Amino acid sequence: MRRLVNILWNSFKMSLDELKNNKLRSGLSLTGVAFGIFCIISVLALVGSLQQKIQDDINSLGTNTIYVDKWEYVNTAEYPWWKFVNRPTPKFEDVKLIEQRSTLAKNVAFFTQNNTTLSYKNTELQFVNLYGVSEEYDHIQKVDIAAGRYFSGSDFMHGNPVAVIGYKNATDLFGGPEYAVGKTVQFGTHRATIIGVIAKQGQSFGPGFDYDNSLMLTYFYYASIFNVNDETSSPFIMVQGKPNVPSQALVDDLEGVMRQVRKLSPKQEDNFALNDVNYIGTSSINSFFGTVNIGGWAIAGLSLIVGAFGVANIMFVTVRERTSQIGLKKAIGAKSRTILLEFLLESAFLCIIGGIIGLLMVAGLAAILNTLLPFKIVISASIIILAFSICVVLGILSGIIPASIAAKMNPVVAIRSK
Fold first, then answer.
1. 398, 315 Cβ separation under 8 angstroms
2. Among 84, 146, 214, 347, which residue's beta carbon has the most beta carbons within 10 A?
3. Domain count of the chain?
């Protein structure tokens, strides 16, 4: 064990000596390694962080939740929109029927939406998302309240003219969420008293609800203003399955229930769509980011190949310069495998130094981007371990031939060389 530590230490010192004595040559060679590791870590960290952000946005739509709609959410080149456009829109009455007939549903909620102009005194906001939700909506969707409260059972039952407003809208209208509660806003010819403010959501990169720019009403108050069965309200039903119920089992259950609700005969095809948004989002994300990762690995691979040739060149020169030392070591009893191990470790250490430089470059880039992007770039431990593993493998591959040459040297011939 002590002998191995000595070999490791000597190899590390020789690597530092090589960098110190041949700064230009070593620097140019390590640039390729550093840039390759920079590409790998930066692409994996950026893509991984963005992918996690989008996945979180998709998960916010509800876990193990199926959306009952007239439209299918998978849009392809052969998307038969003409087939879906004539389907009936989901109705609020269907919620009660699903609750009664489905054996796998835990929560069922109705959702409808529109756009409106929201005003308070002399301040006006255009294109505000107006959401109408039923009672179990917050059981499926996580609605964090930053100030005030969410709708009560009485609000839902009586359709009280109250609203929960988004964080951005509360800030733009009142100067902050703490000033919004108790104020009365106007949209069109109608009014609502603010009872709560939704916590700041931030920019969403995936499908989801834009809570920051929203005004949320109870279903019955919304229905007293708009025609919820109209296409412009885009109504759909959210069905969350019971714990440990697979999404496909819930889809199969809902298909039978909806066919009963719509009174379809066995020969008639479905006139509704059952959308598993988590599956749709995850498959699309994995496909897109898989392509991005391939591009990043391709760029990094070219840089690493250049760096590998540079490190190999350093090791060939180092072997030539230390030929007499190698002969002397072998003459006093050093074994060939010891010489081989020393040069392989030295080559690996050189690549690790290049990897550290690349990691520092990524850390600096991440610090800059974190101030500009609406999501945080995280360099995970697994990415760092992968990067240094690549450095070690690259170093061994780069130094295997020079190290083999050094290990096979004849000690007498090596000592006599100049």
1. yes
2. 347
3. 2
Residue type at position 392? V
Confidence check: pLDDT of 108 > 90? yes
Model-wide pTM > 0.70: no
Same domain, 265 and 166: yes
> Which run of H or of E encompasses 108?
strand 105-120
Q: How is residue 266 annotated by DSSP? A: T
Residue 193, number of CB atoms within 10 A of its CB: 13
Could you report the per-residue pLDDT of 309-331, keeping only the tens digit for each?
777 777 787 777 777 777 777 77
Maximum C-alpha span of the chain? 101
Round to whole Å and give the CA distance between 87 and 73: 15
Contact 67, 73 (CB under 8 A): yes
pLDDT at 281: 53
Report the DSSP beta bridge partners of residue 240.
65, 107
- Select the more confidently predicted residue: 23 or 98: 98
CA–CA distance, 375 with 382 (Å, rounded to integer): 20
Query: Do 394 and 33 contact (CB within 8 A), yes or no?
Result: yes
Q: CA-to-CA distance for 278 and 284, rounded, in angstroms? A: 10
- The closest alpha carbon to 54, from 199, 202, 204, 201, belongs to 204
Q: 6 is in which domain, residue-wise?
A: 2-57+283-416
What value does the CA radius of gyration of the chain take, rounded to a whole number of Å? 32
- Domain-located, residue 79: no
What spatial distance separates the first Cα and last Cα of the chain, rounded to whole Å? Answer: 34
Checking if the pLDDT of 17 tops 80, the result is: no
- Give yes or no: residues 259 and 288 share one domain: no
